[in-house]
Design a protein that fits this description.
It catalyses: cytidine(34) in tRNA(Ile2) + L-lysine + ATP = lysidine(34) in tRNA(Ile2) + AMP + diphosphate + H(+). About 35% of the residues lie in helices and about 15% in strands. The chain has about 475 residues and is α+β, with helices and mostly antiparallel strands. The chain has 3 domains: about 1-210, 3-Layer(aba) Sandwich (Rossmann fold), CATH 3.40.50; about 235-350, no CATH class; about 365-470, no CATH class.
């Protein structure tokens, strides 16, 4: 398959790169057994793709999934009880995201600057193959795509192929006839029947293209609607927080819109990697239904009580006064209630469990800065998966450079959290001296609506910046 891709690229004079997964070489685990092969191979594949994009300085990856793959994804998710956004399948365009919470999967800030596109999602596989045949283009069929014991997706593929009454490519090379007898098949069959219930004369994939397109269109409209609501409703507040009046939420009555909006807010503010399910309450619909019920109920029982429903996002009922001040108290006549969302305070290791890993809130970035200081590079540090701290080393004060060069001194630059919103603060630690704050967040509580917020730098020449990097857009 790799050789075929290389030959085709050469034929069209397209640069080609072949890479492989180095199983057993850190951070890759040993080559997985048959049972875990699909998941681990996918993780390894995406690690190699992202690394190659970094090497080539590419910002976009085009993937070859087609309409049949999209149908399978929808059936797979519907069989697991997903909502509208999940059932709409794979997006045509998506941000790569920060990845997972370990070295193999974590992409950091670079993942926020890279995208995936899927240009063939509306094109059926048969049409793609027919185009290849008509233009004498060679192609390769992966036989493992039709082995139901390898992946759940293959079970769905076999069911739909049998319904279409078309032979399975590569099936003649296998002894058994694929039949829907494996665990989990029943719910997939029910999902297929539900999705294609309006099709009278067609079965299999062909019966599902149109309803699949409807789901995609509805999901796209929902995403646009949620983005518009957030743009109109969110009030000014410090970075990594959100202030939204309860009256704006009460105007939303559609359950799917409520779920999509709360999911977007949580992903926007969570300290988990952007794009990871941990930053979206693991995507569980029943959890979102419970969260929506709690949010839309307001703060009737205890207006002073803050709570978290997961993903390390804290919901606090507050009052917006007539002059625009935010107060943690019951509203007086003429004042508005609102939800103030922020990062939840970190829990102890015992509370969050030994397996859960969070980015530390105290980072010693001295080794990173020292390694890049002589080249006068720009050093970028992702803090708590929320902020990008940028050090312009060519602007570092001369006295501080001399401190770093002096072997008898051991200055350290630390990023730690400050304020109840866990905003980053950069400090300089030196033996015999008090900590020097190099960058910190400031605002005047005497002014309404956090309008005076700014990043204050200790030096006249600004050489450190902080930027909140999590977007609330759907891409």
């Amino acid at each position: 398959m790799a050789n075929q891709a290389s030959r085709l690229a050469s034929q069209f004079c397209v640069p080609h790169v072949t890479t492989s997964i180095p199983w057993g070489v850190h951070p890759f685990p040993p080559k997985p057994t048959h049972g875990s092969m699909e998941t681990m191979a996918r993780r390894g594949r995406f690690n190699r793709l992202f690394d190659t994009m970094t090497t080539l300085q590419s910002s976009c990856l085009a993937l070859g999934q087609h309409a049949d793959d999209q149908v399978e994804t929808t059936i797979l998710r519907m069989g697991k009880g997903t909502g509208l956004l999940g059932a709409s399948g794979m997006p045509f365009v998506r941000r790569w995201g920060m990845g997972g919470m370990n070295e193999l999967d974590f992409n950091g800030y670079d993942g926020m600057r890279r995208y995936m596109i899927r240009p063939f999602l509306e094109i059926p596989k048969d049409r793609i193959l027919a185009t290849c045949e008509a233009n004498h283009l060679d192609y390769v069929i992966d036989k493992t795509n039709f082995q139901p014991e390898v992946a759940l997706r293959n079970q769905i593929r076999n069911i739909l192929t049998e319904q279409s009454k078309s032979p399975i490519p590569g099936g003649e090379r296998r002894n058994e006839v694929p039949k829907p007898v494996l665990p989990g098949t029943a719910q997939f069959q029910r999902a297929i029947e539900h999705l294609g219930r309006g099709a009278l004369e067609t079965k299999g994939y062909a019966a599902l293209y149109a309803p699949m397109k409807t789901l995609q269109d509805n999901a796209q409209a929902l995403s646009i609607q949620v983005t518009d609501i957030l743009r109109r409703s969110i009030l000014h507040s410090p970075p990594s927080t959100a202030l939204i009046p309860m009256v704006a939420l009460h105007q939303i009555t559609a359950p799917e819109v409520r779920i999509a909006l709360t999911r977007r807010l949580i992903r926007y503010l969570s300290p988990y990697p952007w794009g990871h399910l941990a930053a979206e309450v693991k995507g569980r619909r029943i959890a979102y239904e419970q969260l929506v019920e709690k949010v839309w109920a307001g703060a009737k029982d205890d207006p002073y009580h803050s709570w978290s429903f997961g993903s390390y996002v804290l919901w606090s009922p507050v009052t917006i006064t007539s002059k625009g001040f935010v107060r943690y108290r019951r509203p007086d006549p003429g004042e508005r209630m609102a939800w103030f969302l922020s990062r939840e305070p970190p829990r102890s290791q015992e509370q969050r469990g030994q397996k859960e890993r969070m980015n530390p809130l105290v980072l010693d970035v001295t080794p990173t800065l020292k390694s890049q200081l002589k080249q006068e590079r720009v050093a970028r540090i992702l803090y708590d998966c929320r902020f990008l701290i940028t050090f312009h080393l060519n602007r570092m004060p001369k006295w501080l450079q001399e401190e770093f060069d002096d072997q008898t001194k051991e200055p350290r630059i630390i990023i730690r959290n400050s304020s109840k919103f866990f905003l980053p603060q950069v400090i300089l630690k030196r033996t015999g001296f008090d900590d020097l704050v190099l960058l910190t967040a400031k605002w005047d509580d005497r002014q309404p609506g956090f309008q005076s917020f700014l990043w204050a730098c200790a030096e006249r020449v600004r050489w450190i910046d902080a930027t909140f990097v999590r977007p609330y857009s759907h891409v």
